[in-house]
Amino acid sequence: MPKGTPLFDARRLFERLMRSSEDGLKRAHFKNHWLAAALLSPQLIILLFFFFIPSWKALSLAFVQVDPFGGKSLFVGWRNFTELFASESYRNSAWLTFWFTIVQNIATLALAGALAFATDHIIRGRFAYRSILLLPYAIAPVISGAIWAYLFNPTVGPVAMGIHAMGLPWDPNLRSGDALILITISAVWKHICYDYIFLVAAMLAVPQSLREAAAIDGAGQLKRFFTISLPLITPTIMYLFIINMVYGLFDTFPIIDAVTSGGPAGSTTTLVYKVYQDGFVMLNLGSSAAQSVILMILAVTFTVLQFRAMDRKVNYQV
Q: Which residues form a coiled coil (predicted)?
């Protein structure tokens, strides 16, 4: 070894590590760029035709008034938006959507959490228990809405007959409160299995040693859940809260259409259903496009605010 050469050359070691790291990255990359483009093209084509082009079309229609029969369009600027905010029916629909989304979100998380908590304490028939809970996810939303519409039908529905037998009034076709309860039950039942899957997986990730240590200290099952499991699965709950909000804003359309069709008297017309009614029933394409733009901005804004507000308060260490 030459005199004066250090036994440990940190610079040479660092360069060797960086070179091996870069070689690994190069091996992970595609040498043929056309192959990478070909693999990405199906997804990009789907996004182009089913997201970007419709989004651009909705944005362009939001600033014009379109004749649905003649195909002529007139640029009106922000008039579609100003008329929406001045419309009492639109404000009522927005207020209804807010409360409906919040209620179904909380109810879905609470019931899914209770069912996920009970999964750990079922010894016999656990597979059948999980299978039954996952069945609603395999049913189409329209079929789900039709099932609940039949069960609560005031004339032939078995559940409605039981409610009448107890001396309670029930008629979702005439009473707006009953219609709201019915679509909320239908929406929660359809989405509860989705939350259940994530919550069960999150609870399984909680270290068993922590729960065993709490049990040795004398903590009961509920106390172990609220003091150990619940804080550690907060990231999953936060994720499901956002997903449930998006579900309430967008994905409840087929359930509402199958159960109440927005009635009675528009009492179950949420924002997404109003987009359909104004655009495809009333043929007011400009107003419908403006509503869809507002709904998308609302969903994106809410998601960003939720992540920024809750990211610092969530414990992501399991």
A: none
